[in-house]
Amino acid sequence: MDTSSGGEAIGRDNAKKVNGRKRHLIVDSLGLLLAVVVTAADVDDAAAAPQALEQLAEQPLGKLRKVYADNKYHNHALYGWVAENGAYELEIVRRPKGSQGWVRLPIRWTVERTFAWLTKCRRLSVDREKSTRSAEAMIRLAMIHLMLNRLSPKEDQHEFHYRKAG
Fold first, then answer.
1. Fewest beta carbons within 10 Å, which of 1, 7, 12, 66?
2. 12 pLDDT more than 70
3. Can you point out the beta strands (E) in the chain?
4. How far apart are CA 106 and CA 118, in angstroms?
5. Dihedral sign, CA of 23, 26, 27, 33?
């Protein structure tokens, strides 16, 4: 995410060739936000994961047994942190061997869908926040707005329904 107005925690993600910040989200199986951490783009995903995972400890998530993550979170230090601090298993979702181009990965699309929902919020389309705490707060507010609209849609909106699993 390009940070247009400067501020704290700005870096360059050489893999994606962008300057700015990264948003690290943990969502439930419906794509609703459980935790968010905003870091500089040059921060390794696995290094930022404990900050997000610590937020799960503060929530009453009695049925949480497994946390899925993409390949960027495959890191022995993170596995060690989860073993010491988490009451759940960390599973890395990998691309099928030999696949090329875009591949829809099981489970992984859930968080990507949440990122897509967040891009509909104009305030989040460009990161203008000076602090990471403010950026995290804007993400939380956008998700609260989204969830409230799901619970009580406006008169001109269709009631939201999740698609049946295929």
1. 66
2. no
3. 11-13, 18-27, 33-40, 66-69, 89-92
4. 21
5. negative
Structural domain total, the chain: 1
How do 18-27 and 66-69 pair as beta strands?
unpaired
pTM of the prediction?
Answer: 0.77
Neighbour count for residue 77 (Cβ, 10 Å): 12
Condensed to tens digits (0 to 9), the pLDDT of residues 13-61 reads: 656 666 778 889 999 888 889 999 999 888 888 899 999 999 888 777 7
On whether residue 2 sits in a domain, the answer given is no
The residue range of the domain holding 25 is: 11-96+103-151
Handedness of CA 127, 132, 133, 136 (dihedral sign): positive
Q: What is the dihedral of CA 43, 46, 47, 53, to 10 degrees?
A: 120
Instruction: Count the Cβ atoms, other than its own, within 10 Å of residue 131.
Output: 12
- Identify the CATH number of the domain in which residue 67 sits: 3.30.420
Looking at residue 13, what is its pLDDT? 62
